[in-house]
Specification:
Elements: H1 3-10, E1 53-56, H2 64-71, H3 89-97, H4 101-113, H5 123-156, E2 159-164, E3 169-174, E4 183-187, E5 195-201, E6 207-211, H6 213-216, E7 222-225, E8 245-249, E9 259-263, E10 269-273, E11 277-278, E12 283-285, E13 289-296, H7 302-305, H8 316-348, H9 368-382, H10 390-407, E14 422-423, E15 437-440, E16 447-458, E17 461-463, H11 466-480, H12 510-513, H13 542-545, H14 551-564, H15 579-592, E18 597-600, H16 617-630, H17 633-641, H18 645-652, H19 662-672, H20 685-697, H21 701-708, E19 714-717, H22 721-732, E20 736-740, E21 744-748, E22 754-763, E23 771-777, E24 784-790, H23 792-795, H24 808-830, E25 833-843, H25 845-860, H26 865-876, E26 881-892, H27 896-905, E27 909-913, H28 918-927, E28 936-940, H29 945-963, E29 969-972, E30 975-978, E31 993-998, H30 999-1007, H31 1011-1018, E32 1023-1027, H32 1031-1045, E33 1049-1053, H33 1059-1064, E34 1067-1071, H34 1078-1081, E35 1085-1087, H35 1092-1130, H36 1143-1153, H37 1156-1164, H38 1170-1175, H39 1181-1184, H40 1191-1216, H41 1223-1245, H42 1251-1274, H43 1287-1291, H44 1295-1322, H45 1326-1334, ...
Parallel strand pairs: 15-27, 15-33, 27-32, 28-31, 31-32, 33-34, 34-35
Antiparallel strand pairs: 1-8, 2-3, 2-4, 4-13, 5-11, 5-13, 6-7, 6-12, 8-9, 9-10, 14-35, 16-17, 16-26, 18-19, 20-21, 21-22, 22-23, 23-24, 24-25, 25-26, 28-37, 29-30, 36-37
Helix pairs in contact: 1-5, 3-5, 4-5, 4-9, 8-9, 8-35, 10-35, 10-37, 14-15, 14-18, 15-22, 24-28, 25-26, 27-35, 29-31, 35-37, 35-40, 35-41, 36-42, 37-42, 40-41, 40-44, 41-42, 41-44
Length: about 1450
Amino acid sequence: MSLNLLVKMALSVDSSCFRWQGQVKDSFFQTPSESTPLLSEAKERHNYNLSQHRIVFPNNKMFHQDWAKVSKLYSGNRIHTTKYTLLNFLPRNLFEQFHRWANLYFLFLVILNWMPSIEVFHREITMLPLAIVLLIIMVKDGMEDYKKYRFDQEINSSNIQIYEKKEKDYMQRHWKDVRVGDFVQLQCNEIIPADILLLFSSDPSGVCHLETANLDGETNLKQRRVVKGFWHQEPRFEPELFQNKIVCEKPNNNLSKFKGYMEHPDQTRTGFNSESLLLRGCTIRNTEVVVGIVIYAGHETKAMLNNSGPRYKRSKIERRMNIDIFFCVGILFLMCLIGAIGHSLWKGTFSEIPLFDVPDANGSFPSVALQSFYMFLTMIILLQTLIPISLYVSIELVKLGQVFFLHNDIDLYDEEVDLSIQCRALNITEDLGQIQYIFSDKTGTLTENKMVFRRCTIMGNEFSHQENAKRLETQRELDSDDEDCTKCQYGALPGFGTMRCPGGANPLRRSQSARAHFQTHTRHRSMGRCDNAQSPVAFSSTIEKDVTPDQGLLTKVKDAALKLETLTSHRVTKPSLSTGSSITDFFLALAICNSVMVSTTTEPRQRVTIPPQMKSLGASLEKIHQLFQRLKLSSLSQSFSSTTPSDLGESLGPNPIVVDSDEQDDLSSHSCEYSTDVGYQSGSKEEVMAKQDMGAKSPSLEDVLDSVIPEPEFCYEAESPDEAALVHAARAYNFTLVSRTPEQVTVRLPQGTLLTFDLLYTLGFDSVRKRMSVIVRHPLTGEIIVYTKGADSVIMDLLEDPAQAIDPVAEKKLRKIRAKTQKHLDWYARDGLRTLCIAKKVLKEEDFQRWANFRHEAEASLENQEELLMETAQHLETHLTLLGATGIEDRLQEGVPDTIAALREAGIQIWVLTGDKQETAVNIAHSCKLLDQTDTVYTINTESQETCESILNCALEEVKRCYSAREAEQRFFGICLPYQAPSPPVEAASPDIGLVINGKTLNIIFQGHLEEKFLELTRYCHSVLCCRSTPLQKSMVVKLVRDKLKVMTLSIGDGANDVSMIQAADIGIGISGQEGMQAVMSSDFAISRFKHLKKLLLVHGHWCYSRLARMVVYYFYKNVCYVNLLFWYQFFCGFSGATMIDYWQMIFFNLFFTSLPPLIFGILDKDISDETLLALPELYKSGQKSQFYKLSTFWIAMIDAFYQSLICFFIPYWTYKDSDIGVFTFGTPINTISLTTILLHQAMEMKTWTLIHLLVLLASFLLYFVVSLLYNATCVTCNSPTNPYWIMEKQMSDPTFYLVCLLTPVAALLPRYFVLAVQGTCGNSLLLKAQKLDKLPKEKKELAIQEWRRQRERLSTARQAAPSPGNASLGHLQVPHFTEQESRDNSLKDSSSPMKRHVGDWVFNRDRSSPHPCPGHMGHNQSSPSSSARPSPDEHLLDPSGHKDFGMFRGPQTGKPTASRRGSHRRSQSALTI
């Protein structure tokens, strides 16, 4: 077995009992005050606190003594993932098993039976059932632990090179020999044995490449860098020359964060972070040799601390079952009490002591009260099987069977990624059939997480990329047709070539889909069905990397690139507002503002560090000059003349700073951005045709370049699909990222020129800043430039103030560019595109040096390092110059709309919790049918608690008014709420109300204790969208709904930001998508596509729940029915605790005769076929309402059990009354009748009859007779003093026995059969109708299902044709329309952008700098708008809108277009004001 596989499995097993006990103290992670200096005074200390920090001394001669002292305090690298040892296995396993109180209960009964005064059965016999159950579980636990032990041994014995002081060289040792402070040398493709600080890399740039698939499933490579100061070293690292001490944080489970510093002999410090830490379990790639020092070993490594193993959750049925067991205990107590009282009354009928009473050793007889107490305990032993001990074992076996069939469902297998469903939590399968709320992420869950560049806007000019859009539409058509195996070639498309249909692939084998994925998380990437071959590089599918450029923008890019060559270090000027320079900066930012690694197609894992073809810029310019001589000057002049006048001036003018006039800017925008009248366009048709004709006449610049310098084919390995999409887009415009090192990044320009930027700093993306920046030195001008990309909600607030511009013309242009860019961003968001803003900033040399010093101090600080680094980043990323924005499409996954529609029909309420923009989320919600165009959507965006509370009250009042005439009211949280069905999902709620809310409003709701009102409003909504949500908010929302509404919740996501939400829900589902396996490793179930959720819930969820629920009820019925036979016998034996059935027969009854049919029933029974369940999703509601197992069904089963036990006992009693038969002769027909009745009862419960069901029932019945005949024939004195010898043989020779055994079960089951017959004939439930449909022939069944769906659609249409609650009831609101004074720029013109028209909409727009006070939201004077109370600025209060068609917002009374906000990046907002 390979070491790689062993590491994966070792990192997946449970090691919680061996984890680091002294984890990081809370004081170490306390948030510091804002006055904390960059470097604390602790810098001068020499006494280290080992309780707060970890001190690592190197294992060399200089620090040998210190290393020997300190390393003893740290864990070694030997891992133990086993629970037990040979010595503690038996006691510890028994201790764990007796944590289950049912086992304690039966242990108590065993101990009672050992007391002579209350002994009922032989002592050894009483122990047998408990011993068998304990033995089965003990063997299972032992086998599992032994497998873990073997894995541990193989991993601990793996080889590694460790530096030895005596030999002064690296020697081969085992992983278990590694200690903290050791120097470890690793070769390429070796697995890292511990958490190691990187000190040396054979890469000249000091970079090591890691594959982290064992940790997070991500196949793209990660970069790790040598600690600063060790980059430039000799070819060989000398550990004896290492004289530094390492201080870092204590072991913790945060994989992405690590901080510490290295203290040099001169007391100076060098800081390091997670970029220099190699984690255990990762694999070295593309690096020949690396050397590092061990920081954490063994169970203190981050990988082992993150290992939680399979989580144990208690299902809803199990919680219900525990309550019913208490009811059974109550029934048992009552029966025992009756037995004790009956015994005392029976003893009171004797005038003198009866002969069967035996005195004690002193010759005295116990009192009647004491005898009654003894009889109470005796009855507990006699009736002990009323508590079903075998039920727990049966449930575990049934769930294993259900998981097996789940895993082998071919419909849940994804051939593209070679993954079937993974079941990580084996004990909550039945909860899949009771889900009421689904909380879903958007990106990667509803969408494919394949980012495709669609459009961009540069300096206010929008470029629509129509050809690229056509390519994507063609790709969609190909994807929709890929199931047609006859169409094996799709023709030649741009960037595609000939495609091959996957239909010719080998069919899936059952053994292939049955491979267990419980422990390993290996993910085989597939780039889609339409790719010719699977690429080993992530985010590089054909649809992602082949971008068709916009012709108008491509021409401008060529002109701007020519102009770039004229720049020199002597012409450094202040930042230009010209379009040409901004275009260049825009694409340079796309190419270099990332962490993308460059590799080649021939060797995609070999990183490119040296630019190909040309090394120096001078040589590049000479070759470019020669190439220009070969070009036709006439063609070049035509190319220049085809551009706009403004761009011509920018390209050829002598002054690089050209400020366009208004006329020039308007002309440029007219030809380049899409018109507000005709939609998205890029230039006129005549211009495009002219450019195409021109290109056909003469060779282009690229053609000449390609003929001389063939461009190599690069592969880009990015950590996120967004980064890859932007780099591919830059390359489409010939800004090609050629190479990247930690110190430099090289970009090829359209003319072939190589620009090598010095990479000074990289400020990575984080969820707090929501942006990324790179600081580079321009190779031509020498300027220090900061390129920043990030979310528009953040970047727009960091732009420089236009009012600070010296030139009024420049100020006007800045404002206009910002307004146009914001308008384009709004359009992108409404089209469902992901938006990013691109900006830059030019730094002065002294400013950069000052900032770099602060940054260095922050990196070297151990205390408050994260806060200090955040401060330095925020200090730098201010006063930015906006370059433009991009729109990236994340395509909707296949089958998502149908899946959501089916889940909504099933009564499941779906919430989308996403961090994306509100407009993007709303657009995706419409695309996937989460929202309909006829829905009334309430949008709440506010930052004021008072305003939020008023809005919630107003919305609730209006919505309640819609339902007051139709529904009764009930109390909910002390608030009046309309009565709803038992299922909380919106069966009674309006089908046409949606709610959209942002993260800031969620904070207000949680902080202002408005959760109850918020939940009450959501109960009326069929869907809720929470936008701009943080991971913490996602989990808080899930916990709020789960705990307050007491509903079953399911969370589904694909990324690390969804982990908290997945863990907070009753069921967590991870999608093994393109963001790694963090979500999968934290989930209960893992699927590869969102569409699989449909069958997982509607089919397997329904089956698992109905099977297990009915099996549990059957077990309660079976045990109560059988035990009652013994109880009725007590009335005829003086409540003495005697039995009429041999005890071995009683043991065999539950152990063999009636154990297998319930298991087969729980695994294989199908009440409704999968086709019907998928066609009629409303059948799922039976599980939401717990129809199969609830309090009423339990007590009905108990009543039925009591009735059947009465019939099974008294009919034989009356038959054999006044005869001279023995006790066992009387008990044998009763035992036979009860077995026949219980098995027939099971047969009546079965909805599916197969050969297996029939054989199991017959085998159980025949096994009883075989065992009874053999036992009675061979056992003479097995149960002294009773004698069961030849009892069954005599009974089977008596015709009365057959007559009684035939008539009694019929009488016992007749009421149940009658009730089932009446239900089947007259019942009106959906399940009964569906079961009748399944009995029809296939053709008739399909017609009946179609008619069923048509009737449902007619009812839905009739409901929608009625007056809409949203419009009818909200129409009475009187909201004044506030107007504003004219601004400096054309607000009315900007407000004419395409926006959805809202019927019955109330819009309130105001400038964010409005001078009017905003004290509240209630009360106004309609005649005087200016005197009315207004909401606070920048608050999107409430937008109840029924989306009909496109247009602009209009006021409800005036019908005039509302003025949009100016001077701000935020869009015009809507508010409901009363």
